[in-house]
Amino acid sequence: MNRADTGQSNTGSGDILNTMDRAPSGTGTRAEVNPGSTEYWSGLCQRVAQGDHQAFDSLYTELSPVVYGISVRLIRNTAQASEVTQEVMLEIWNNAQQYSQSAGSIYAWASTIARRRAIDRIRSEEARTAREDRNFTVDREVAQIDDELMAQVDSEQVRDCLATLTVKEKQTVIDTYYGGSTYAQVAERRQMPLATVKSRIRSALQRLKTCLEVA
């Protein structure tokens, strides 16, 4: 059972945060002289598992440059690599009892955690970028339809086509184009997600465009 299960992970958390506030030193390579044997590191991890802040300080000093080096090589962003380093060291603090001599060196163990965290961060950033790209595409499509409709915004055809929309679609379009509100303002006023407002307006404008083409 680790400290997270017993509530001990919060004990002295300020000391741990102070240790982790230090920027990783070195260049991400292993020290020339190993300060201890495998048995030494195993014992140190056991002390960390028991909440020994001084033992963790020793682990942080030795492992954070290695973790940072791996993170920055994979992520290629120093700020995010620093964040991942803190995440890895916090995981080591909470799960130090999981280190076993049979698993290899302390460096290999920390490196495995660092690679996993760095890859997770890369995937998360890729997913975020993909979402932003999709939102940009939708906004751009809406803007293209807007331009075509605005040229006829005062025409009788537009008023007739507005009558073909659902009540909610018509309300949203009127708020935006006749009321002069932004999408965000409409979302706040109608107490609905911004994505819903954009989707509703996009659907309404596409229907209006089709109606105007037929008319």
From TrEMBL:
Q: Where is this region: Disordered?
A: 1-35
What positions does the domain RNA polymerase sigma-70 region occupy? 59-126, 161-209
What Pfam families would the database entry show?
Sigma70_r2 (PF04542), Sigma70_r4 (PF04545)
Q: Which InterPro entries match?
A: RNA_pol_sigma-70-like (IPR039425), RNA_pol_sigma-70_dom (IPR014284), RNA_pol_sigma70_r2 (IPR007627), RNA_pol_sigma70_r4 (IPR007630), RNA_pol_sigma_r2 (IPR013325), RNA_pol_sigma_r3/r4-like (IPR013324), WH-like_DNA-bd_sf (IPR036388)
Q: Which residues form a coiled coil?
A: none
Bias type Polar residues, positions: 1-13
Q: Which UniProt keywords apply?
A: DNA-binding, Sigma factor, Transcription, Transcription regulation
Q: What family does the Swiss-Prot or TrEMBL record give for this protein?
A: Belongs to the sigma-70 factor family. ECF subfamily.
For this entry, the protein name equals RNA polymerase subunit sigma
